[in-house]
Amino acid sequence: MSSIDEFALIRLLNGGKQSAALAQAAGVVTGIGDDAAVVEASPGSHWILTCDTMTEHIHFKQITMRDRDIGYKAMASAVSDIAAMGGVPRFALVALCMPGGTKVERVQAIYEGLYECASRYGVAVVGGDTTAILGELTLTVTVIGETGLGQAKLRSAAQIGDAVFATGYLGRSAAGLDFLLEQNLSSGQWGDFPEPIAPLVQAHCRPEPQIEAGQLLQRSGSCRALNDVSDGLASELWEIAEASGVGIDVMEERIPVADELAAFAQAQGKDPLDYILYGGEDYQLVGTVPAGDAVELQMRFKAAGLPLHVIGYVNAEGSGVRMVQTNGYIVPLGKKGYNHFSGADGKGGA
């Protein structure tokens, strides 16, 4: 890295990125610059705390994400965990580990994207850490969110007879990654991608955590289990099934497939369901709701201009996940999805 001391780097990366008004509105008492941040805790609420890490060559390569996108996505993935609990993101801490020789300009771009996402969702960045590392560039984001007492949505709350829902389209991020890996572009070669590729690249590089959907689910009073789709639909359904001690059947014909995903999968000679079930990094929400409340919940989402699809139901068949195919056959869905330690199904360009 170019010659610059730690405190000068902190000022360079964070100075002027967020207004004093945003910090004050978020309840920041003491922000970046002291040993720790001090923030106000509202009475009658619970904090939600989450941490997410992205490491170069594991979660991203420079041919799959531009530097600004890296920062944006690191913040988005942590904020998504707050959405999956039905909470509101409030504060963030950022830890950056840099190998020797990292250009300051690159780190600046990463932080520009990080702050762009933080400001979009009203998250005040209140501190963190920077350090040298012998390995690859690593960015860790801790986000603190808030929800009412006892109102956090858990994976373990699904009940037999519930309908299973998903927000938005799934599988596009994994398809975007496939496209980018094939192109092998340097950051300087990126430009506007044609339809139907552009939405796939956008879904991979700039995922949008579903904070509004999570809040709507919480206010509805009917949502039970909730999870975000970071490792593929099949994996997230398995997490709900195991945590709740139930079985889940997902209906193939009810899983929405975006037109751009269908077109790309066909061109690749792949089944779009492979991207949806096992791709991940969509950061949409999947959960359960009493079957009798499903239609009303869909109407609430429609009125808010948000999509919600009923894709299955909860049963008593153990704690597994199955898919009811369009031909009527029922097949088990494996736990496949991204696993950091399996050596398979990697994402992010690993």
From TrEMBL:
Mg(2+) 1 binds at D52, D129. Residues 160-322 form the PurM-like C-terminal domain. Pathway: Cofactor biosynthesis; thiamine diphosphate biosynthesis; thiamine diphosphate from thiamine phosphate: step 1/1. Mg(2+) 4 binds at D35, T50, D81. Mg(2+) 3 binds at D35, D81, D228. Residues 33-146 form the PurM-like N-terminal domain. Catalyzes the ATP-dependent phosphorylation of thiamine-monophosphate (TMP) to form thiamine-pyrophosphate (TPP), the active form of vitamin B1. Belongs to the thiamine-monophosphate kinase family. This is Thiamine-monophosphate kinase. It comes from Paenibacillus solanacearum.
